[in-house]
Structures are given as C-alpha cells and as structure tokens.
Amino acid sequence: MKRLLDCTASEIAQMNKTEKLKGIQKSEGRIIVSEVTTIDAPNALKNACLGELYASMGADCLMLNVFDVMHPFILNLPVAHPQDSIRELKRLTGKLVGTNLEAIPQATLDSTEFIKLSPGRISNRETLLKCQELGMDFISLTGNPNTGVTNQEIMLQVALAKELIGDNMIIMAGKMHAAGSLKEAGSHIISKDIVKGYAKAGADIIILPAPGTVPGITTNFIRELVDYAHSFGVMTLTAIGTSQEDSDQQTLRQIALMAKMTGTDMHHIGDAGYAGATPESTMIYSLVVRGKRHTYNRMATSPLR
Known about the structure:
Layout: H1 9-13, H2 17-26, E1 31-37, H3 50-56, E2 61-65, H4 85-93, E3 96-102, H5 106-109, H6 125-134, E4 138-142, H7 151-165, E5 170-173, H8 192-201, E6 205-209, H9 219-231, E7 235-240, H10 249-262, E8 266-269, H11 280-300
Parallel strand pairs: 1-2, 1-8, 2-3, 3-4, 4-5, 5-6, 6-7, 7-8
C-alpha cells in the first residue's frame, strides 16, 4: 500500500475505504485538505472550478462546502446531469472528494435564532445515503457559522453514518469553531470526552481546531487531544475554519507549523476570502508541512496518470 502522498489519480480511483485510510496514515501528517465553496469562483477563473484550482496548488483532498446533495451544483463544472458532478470533479482532479454536512439538532432546526439551511446540507438518513450515491469519498460532519451544530448531535450523526455508509465512506467529525453554540465556544469546542464520544460513535477522522485559530486553542492542548484520538485507533484533522486561511503568509506558516507539531494526520485549509481562500494558501501551507519536493509533485502530477 502506497502513501496517499505518492498515489496517482488512477491508483486513488481503485482504492477502497480501508486503503484510503491506510494511505493517509502512511503519509505521516502530510495530507492537505482544501475546503471548496461550490457556488463561488473568481472572475478570472473561466475554464475551471475552485476544486480544480486548489488541486493544482497541491491539495490531496477537496472538502466541499455549501453543497446541497439533493441539488448538486458546482460552479464552472459543466455536466450533462447534476448527479454526475462529484464523479466529474474527481475525474478532473484525481483527488479524494467529500462534503460537509451539518449536524443540527431538531430543536435548533425549529428555532429562528440560527441560519436556515436547505435540507440537502443537513445530515440525516436521506442525505448520508445520497452522498454515497453521488460517489463521495468522505463526509465531514461539522458546522458552519451560526448554524447551531452541537457536539452531541455530531455524535448521533456519526453513529447513523457508521450504520448506513460506514463500510464505503470515510467519516470525519468535529467542530472547527463554535458554529453559533455559545456553550461550545473557545476551548469548550473540544475535550477528551468529546474525542472519545466521536471515536466510540464510529468516526474515522476527528476534526480539531488548528492551534491559534480559536480562542484558547494552543499547540499543547491539541497535541494532547491528537495523542488521545490516536489511542482509539482514529486519525485527526486540524482545521482552519476561522478565516485565517486568508491571512498573511507569516500567520499561515505559523499555524501550519504549530499544527504539524501536534502530530495531526491531516491539515485542513478553509474557504474564506473572495470566492474562496487565496489559492497560494494551499501551496504555502503545503511547503511548510511537506517541503518543495512533495508540494511540487502534487501540483504537477496530471490527473490522467
């Protein structure tokens, strides 16, 4: 089994879930996940979608955001049938592709306090099965700002996902920020009990805020949680979900290096900025955690290989 870091598009296309997870694990903390808004694109980007752009900058995985699985649409990705959108993005980029689903409690769905989302963005039995039908490699059970997503509901949705699609799709779970829940803000976003809850519910990869991105989230704090997650045999993804992906290069490099020091398995770069994060952010981050050799190899390798 090769490291995902070294796999070509044709090799990735032949992998099952177990092989993908082993490929990530063998890459020793050098896998880059770029979050991609599917309804935006810079004016200059006429013949490519954002997913193609971030793939060209060295991303290994593309995590879609604001993607409605019941009404699939990716701007600048022409397909005859919308149901083919995910498979076409995978064909054009050669990357692992997945999407965010929001784990929102029923009481919150009925509340006027939070943002209302389309049904195709909310995690439930129907949308989880739809993700598998569309050909996703993974799902990310998390929460966008002011959606009212809670850790408890994420755990419930992880258990449901494990039951429905756990044999075929990688399950990522966790909050990158408070998602509008004041009781789960700052360092209360994550704890050992929450990590244990995610792992026991069936998560394959636990999402943690990257050090320096959320108030109270330090390198040592996240390092301890990474080690704890690893004790359950699951991996971690440290995430920038606080718009700092569009910060100055020095700040981005500092976050990348701190995340590397935690021992995390994967690094997530968010989608903030004009029509998404500055494309160079993916390359800059990649250079920090894996150097020029691997960064340029990921950027240059054709999806036709």
